[in-house]
Amino acid sequence: MHEKVEALQAENQAQRLYITILLVASLLLLLFAVAVLWSRRQLQQNMHLEIGKKSYELLNIQDQVHQANEELRVINTNLEAIVEERTLRLSKVNRELDMFLYRASHDLRRPITTLMGLVEVSKLGFDEASARMLFEKINDTAVNMDSMLEKFSMINTINHEDYTCCEIDFEEIIGYIQQSSVISTYASKINFDIQIDKKIRLISEPQLITFVLKNLIANSVIFHSRATDRHPMVRLTIKQMGNSIGIELYDNGIGIPPNMLPEIFHLFYRGSEASKGNGLGLYVVQKAIEKLSGEIRVESEENQWTSVHITLPQMEGKTIYMKPETSHSAIA
User: Fold this and answer.
1) What's the chain's average pLDDT?
2) What is the CB neighbour count within 10 angstroms for residue 152?
């Protein structure tokens, strides 16, 4: 009996041990399953984070590619515009060159044939009065040819020279212009009124400004009024306008018809029978002002007056040197 009890107890202990082992194994299995699930979740989270990071990087790359494509599109558009602009400019230059060569050859032959004709007339013999008239005509022809060649030189200078800027001495420029043949010829017939602001200061290119003023003043002089009821007058005003310079040239000459105003700056355009030139003066003026980054505006009333308004900025990005102070007389 005692043995049976011990066997039963041993069996119960074995069962408890089995159950304990089974519980421990189940717990370990559960812990393993939890660990696996946690690791998987962590892995999924890491994968999601990595995917999010890669997605963000891809979006940034897409933005950069889009921005680069947009920049390339803008560059291509600008290049096309630049090419088109330069093509149009080249076509314009070629047209002007063709016209220039054609007209220049004819205009150069005109004074030469005039001189040849005068030489033939002189062979017929002449008295003192006719000799004086003949030499005056020769002088006029020579002056016109000199003026034309000077304008050709101006155009070449504007198109090809490099410029050095300095402080502009307007009185010196006006004094130089006063000595030119066209101005001096009419000086006694025309009242010149020169008003230059004493505080004026402009850094620019003196040669181009000389071209502008010389041609404009010459035009005012040549096209002065022949009416007996008024005395010809040319008024030049130069004043400071902020950081720029304003120039106004006014004359009471023959004026310009309204339909001709849009054409006056064209190459070889001559709008009046009174013109003794070849239509280059105002063309030179416009080209020089473009080079100076300035602006020009012309107002006129036919048979009454003409007013030219010019604005010139300070020239930047150029080599600048200061000229010594000198005193020069202006046109008076």
Assistant:
1) 80
2) 17
DSSP string, 225-236: ---TTS--EEEE
d(CA 171, CA 202): 13
Predicted confidence (pLDDT) per residue in 117-145, tens digit: 777 777 777 677 777 887 777 777 777 77
Q: What is the pTM of this model?
A: 0.62
CB atoms under 10 Å from CB of 104, counted, come to 18
Q: Is 179 helix (H, G, I), strand (E, B) or coil?
A: coil
Query: Token digits for 12?
Result: 């119960």
180 and 309 in a common domain: yes
Q: How far apart are CA 22 and CA 17, in angstroms?
A: 8
Residue 192: inside a domain, yes or no?
A: yes
DSSP letter (8 states) at residue 300: E
CA–CA separation, 296 and 308 (whole Å): 7
What total of structural domains would you count in the chain?
A: 2
Q: Confirm if 256 and 274 have CB atoms less than 8 A apart.
A: no
Residue among 245, 173, 238 at smallest CA distance from 207: 173
Verify that 95 and 195 share a domain, yes or no: no
Encoding tokens for residue 137?
A: 């005509």
**CB neighbour class for 89 (10 Å; exposed up to 12, middle 13-18, buried from 19):** exposed
| Secondary structure (3-state) at 252 | coil
Q: Specify the residue for token string 């198109």.
A: 159
- Cα pseudo-dihedral 318, 320, 326, 330, rounded to 10: 10
CA distance 259 to 110: 28
Positions of E strands within 96-137: none
CATH of the domain at 267: 3.30.565.10
- What is the rounded CA–CA span in Å between residue 208 and residue 158? 7
Does residue 144 lie within any of the structural domains?
Answer: no
The DSSP code for 260 is G
Statement to judge: residues 74 and 195 lie in one domain:
no
Give residue-wise pLDDT tens across range 256-304: 888 888 888 887 666 655 555 567 888 899 999 999 999 999 999 988 8
